From TrEMBL, chain B:
It comes from Amaricoccus solimangrovi. GO terms for molecular function: iron ion binding; oxidoreductase activity, acting on single donors with incorporation of molecular oxygen, incorporation of two atoms of oxygen. This is Twin-arginine translocation pathway signal.
Amino acid sequence: MATGPAHRIRAGLVWAVVALVTVAPLLAAAASPLLEWREPVYVVAGFAGIVAMALLLVQPLLAAGALPGLAGRRGLRSHRYAGAAALVVVLVHVAGLWMTSPPDVIDALTFTAPTAFSAWGVIAMWALVIAALLAAFHRRTRLWHLAHRMLALVIAIASAAHALLIEGTMEPVSKVAACAVMVVATVAVVARVRIRAAGGMSR
Amino acid sequence: MTPVLYDRRSLLAGGGALLLTGVAGLLSPFRAEDLAPTRSMRGGANNYLPGAPVVERIGGGGFWMSGTVRRAGDGTPLAGQRIQIWAHTTEGSERDPWSHGATLTDAAGAFRLEMPRIVPAFGQPHGHLAYDSGDFETVFLRPVMRNARQRALEAHFVLRPV
């Protein structure tokens, strides 16, 4: 591992970008005028969704060990914690929305909502639940790796579609940036690791 | 007069309806009898509270909900029909009773009710309207604002007698 000044600058830059892309949407949403007209439970539900997106954004980077200081095993362990945290905040997101407006959440969960983003959100949620269950209970076979990567793609793309189609508290520029980084990072990591797996790698 | 707003959805729906009614008009001699009843929209009944009182205005006002009520078939304007309206506004959520109110159509079948400004909730700035008085089949509408800065929204009912 290189530890020279160039390496440290690069590490600092990587973390600065990650911090910017994950924290900016939260700060920008905190300034949304819509918050004034929402009850606390609804506000918490919304922010839980934004936190979930921030976690999903770093997930591929942790899995690939691409974040400075979190390579290899440490990255993988962080990936598991972040995955579990994503599951928890998504549950908070759905529960908070349920308390705010039960019929809208029932429509979403039964795929009968008038809004397309509801379906995307529910697709992403189930993909995340399946990914978490498989990660918790399944052996790391080649098939598992393939399934995990496919689920990761579904989660990233469906989450991005979900967020982008919503007119809510998120500020558009930081939202688009976070969605773009999430999708590009996920696709890049999935594609790269798959090539290595074909060569007989993967743990 | 509130401006009529067009987005892609309403243009597609309108174009489709025009095409359908146009073709139907050519095929059928009973042109005036063809006005189809409005179908309830998905999610239209969400957070409906039956029996919203007829009010002068919902809350402090600042936003206008308007529309028309006609009879299916011949399109006769229906006067004195009670339309219930609710939304997530600057003064409350859809579930708050004070976000709900009703108004009656005038002799021309038109209604217009002032209410607090609708703000985006559950992903879209939208309102809810209901016809649920029993003489005609119940209809729930859920019109969506083209942008959150709008201060007016329209919804139109074509009702089928029960």
